[in-house]
Amino acid sequence: SIPLGFFGGIGAASRNGILVKGSNYLEALNDVKVVVFDKTGTLTKGVFKVTSVHPEGTRTEDELMKLAAIAEANSNHPIAESIRAAWAKDIPAQGVDGYDEVAGHGIKVKVNGQEVLAGNAKLMEQAGIMYTKPQTVGTVVHVAEAGEYVGHLIIADEVKEDAASAIEALKQLGIRKTVMLTGDAKAVGEAVARQLGVDEVHAELLPQDKVERLEQLEQKKLPKEKMIFVGDGINDTPVLARADVGVAMGGLGSDAAIEAADVVIMTDEPSRIASAIRIAKRTRRIVW
Ligand code: ADP
Ligand code: MG
C-alpha cells in the first residue's frame, strides 16, 4: 500500500503546477544527484526569431526566405515556426512533394522537381554542399537548392527568465552535477551553458545520441544516486523514457512527451524542478 503522506506530496506538487505520476517518482526525486537538461524549449524559450538573412550568389533575401519557408511549411520544430513567422506571407504548396524531416538535421523536400535542403551544417555535409560558416553565434539554417548553396538564416532563441536561478537552486539542494544535451551547434550550447552556470554540455547530438549520453552519465553515478532528464519532448521522448525520472515541459511539450514523462511541469518553468525536489524531501520526512 502507498503511505498516505505520498498523497499529500503529490497534491502539494500539483498545487505547484507539477504533475507527479506516482509515489515512486516522488520518492526517487529525493535521491537525485544529477540533473540533465535538454536545451531548446527546456532551458530556452524555444521561441526562435530570425535575426538575419544571408543570401549567396545571385539570390535575394526574399528568394532565400521563401525557399526556407516552403521547406519548413509542415514542420512543428520551433525553428520552422520562426521561419514561417518571419516570412509572414502565403507559402506556395504547388510543386512541393517528397517532404522528409530528418531529426537533428532539418528538412529535405522536392520543389518543382529540385531537391531543397534547409537545416544545419550536418545536413549540408551529408549532401556534399559547401556552405558559409557564419561569424555570429546563433542557430544557423543553411539552405540549398538542386545541389547549390543558396545562403543561410541566423535564428536566435532566448533563455527562460528563471533558467539561471533554476540551476542555482538545484546546486543549493545538493545536486552534484547539471548537464545540458543539445542538438544545436557547439558554440551555441557552450554559450548557453556558460550563461546559466550549467556544469557540462554535450552538443551536436542526434536524438539517439542523447539516449547514449544519458546512459554514459548513468554509469558514472553511484548506484544509489538518481538522475533526472528534463525535456520539452520535441525529439527527446526516448530520453525521457530512459531516465530514472523523466520530466517533461507540459505547455510547449508534445503529447508523446507528456505521455512518456514521469513528471510534467505544467508551467514550463525549469525552476519547478527544484520545487519538486523540495516537496519530495518534505514528503519523505512526513512519511518515514
Ligand atoms: P535541441 O536539442 O536543441 O532541442 P533538436 O534535436 O530539436 O535540438 O534539433 C537539433 C538541430 O537540428 C537544431 O539545432 C537544428 O540545427 C536542426 N534542425 C532540427 N529540425 C530542424 C528544422 N525543422 N529546420 C531546420 N533545422 C532543424
Ligand atoms: Mg528540444
Overall form: elongated
CATH topology of the largest domain: Rossmann fold
Mean pLDDT: 93
- What class do helices, strands and sheet pairing give? alpha/beta
Radius of gyration: 21 Å
CATH hierarchy class name of the largest domain: Alpha Beta
Classify the beta-strand content into a percent band. Answer: 25-35%
Helix content: 25-40%
Alpha-carbon distance between the two ends? 14 Å
* Model regions low in confidence, pLDDT < 50 over at least 5 residues: none
Protein name: Cadmium-translocating P-type ATPase
Organism: Paenibacillus amylolyticus
Family: Belongs to the cation transport ATPase (P-type) (TC 3.A.3) family. Type IB subfamily.
Subcellular location: Cell membrane
